Amino acid sequence: IISTVEFNHTGELLATGDKGGRVVIFQREPESKNEPYNQGEYNVYSTFQSHEPEFDYLKSLEIEEKINKIKWLPQQNAAHSLLSTNDKTIKLWKITERDKRPEGYNLKDEEGKLKDLSTVTSLQVPVLKPMDLMVEVTPRRIFANGHTYHVNSISVNSDCETYMSADDLRINLWHLAITDRSFNIVDIKPANMEDLTEVITASEFHPHHCNLFVYSSSKGSLRLCDMRASALCDKHSKLYEEPEDPSNRSFFSEIISSVSDVKFSHSGRYMLTRDYLTVKVWDLNMETKPVETYQVHDYLRSKLCSLYENDCIFDKFECAWNGSDSVIMTGAYNNFFRMFDRNTKRDVTLEASRESSKPRAILKPRRVCVGGKRRKDDISVDSLDFTKKILHTAWHPTENIIAIAATNNLYIFQDKVNSEMH
Amino acid sequence: MFVRGLKRKCFDGEEDIEGTLAGIKAIPSYNLQRQSLLDMSLVKLQLCHMLVEPNLCRSVLIANTVRQIQEEMTQDGTWQMINTQSTGQASLDRLVSTDILCRSSREQAEGKHVPGYSTFNKDFEGDQAQDSSETMSTASSVQAPRNLQSNVWEMENTQENKGNFQKSLDQIFETLENKSPNSVEDLFSEVDNSYYDLDTMLTGMMSNTKMGHCDGLETFSSPATATSNSNCKSDLNELDHIVEILVES
């Protein structure tokens, strides 16, 4: 079961983490003129076991090895690096390629055995000869014991030196090179745990300002914090909260307002949040309400009690921006995912399933009907499969390529006609 | 707080009527719906995985929902304060409900252990190990798996002192203990379809025909009967709801 999907900064690599603690990295094939239709496909580049299940002896509880989040570090040399985290431990992995090996040692023979020195008559300089590409992945840092609660997000700072990790109640700031120390920058744990009513659900650093970060809460609010203001950023600089709509209020109002994901736009001007029924675009300069709200699956509003009973109401969907911040995307049920064009205000529902997507076939828009006329191929709300949920989606940083995780399968869709950003 | 009688939305005609409910169908009262939701929430809080730490966000959201319901019930004045019996055991970790739910979940194939209700509070404090071992020892002290019904009555004498947050649950179960065993049989068959309407009622929709189909409600297959108006009986119904969920899930 895929639990996270993330493109690297160039889009050349795509990393997925799964429930078994494995990370699979896909690499995009370079485009070649000979086969124009094979260009740009993603193939497996490397697979490694990132986390193993652990047992917390103090609490008598298992620590799941499921990878909650992967974040790529900006590439600084030939190697690629990424951070992967489970509930408790964050690891820094370095991915290197080896495609040459030295041959012609003086003291060792081809198999590495020491040569009989009497046979050495002349000296030679070892040369590098090409070999089959080998991808090596090594753990470079292990950031452990930083969190009492479950880590839900990690975010690399734009300074490329620090990153933060957030759990339900606290956010820590780490230096990428230092594993035995981290700074706590947000702590919302109440003195008496029985007073706990709100938890942190997601957090992210601003893409350009290394001192700013945002975190979202289960009550639907966003807090923008400035690390220059104080060491402990419990006091927010800005609080983004939309007042409740009294006409829609129910016992489930709070649950569906809980923000499951927050993403800064590439420009850094906007934030995208996902709650159970909507995605919202917030302007950093306006705290009172979002500038745009899009209904993802409003037809579920009348089914909240059933969804509460089967726990679907607690599903955490992610959201994504496209490279130019003009289109936003999020997943839904029945293997549907939705895209909203912010400029044209048009939206589309697509399905990620084997039946509906043969290679190079064009996806057909889907529609969920709630009443009234029902067209052919429409799906009624009651036939939706709530076990097929698309929680994790990612968008290539520059091109119209999206990665969709549907339970066990990864789908990569490309927009061939309009490969460039508009 | 909760707005009733809101605009209704259109539903597909095909969702009209289950064949078994031709004619009059009593729409359960709002109080009953609310009680059902409360009980469902309390059950959710209890049925946590024991091997892995429960999801804190989910627990907090459910707890807030419970609190909200209880606040509203208190405001409405429907919350009858029943005197709690105290048997002298001061431990907050032993609850009637705990044992019932522990046993019932053990009878299930999954074999999940159910932490005590008070473990929920303690969970927040991170003392899970301690509480879970207490709970498990409580559960394991029961000899053979018994019929769920008899469990309820046997627990009469193990009433414990409760914290204020747990009082609500206690009152539900105390009400249960005062009932005669004879009515249990009837009540078990009186599973109503109020859940279907729970959707519509609790989300502010008016509906008289909608039978919400959802995976989670497949267990509620019995036809609805008119539910009583008395608070006590409705509490009893809701307990059976819980039992029904546990037994059939």
From TrEMBL, chain A:
Protein name: Serine/threonine-protein phosphatase 2A 55 kDa regulatory subunit B
Alphabetical keyword list: Repeat, WD repeat
Family annotation (InterPro entries): PP2A_PR55 (IPR000009), PP2A_PR55_CS (IPR018067), WD40/YVTN_repeat-like_dom_sf (IPR015943), WD40_repeat_dom_sf (IPR036322), WD40_rpt (IPR001680)
GO molecular function per UniProt: protein phosphatase regulator activity
UniProt KW NAD keyword: no
SMART domains in the record: WD40 (SM00320)
GO terms for cellular component: protein phosphatase type 2A complex
Family indicated by similarity: Belongs to the phosphatase 2A regulatory subunit B family.
TrEMBL record, chain B:
Record domain SERTA: where: 30-77
InterPro entries in the record: E2F-SERTA_domain_protein, SERTA_dom
Protein known as: CDCA4 protein
Organism, as annotated: Stercorarius parasiticus
Location of region: Disordered: 112-146
GO cellular component assignments: nucleus
Biased composition (Polar residues): 129-146
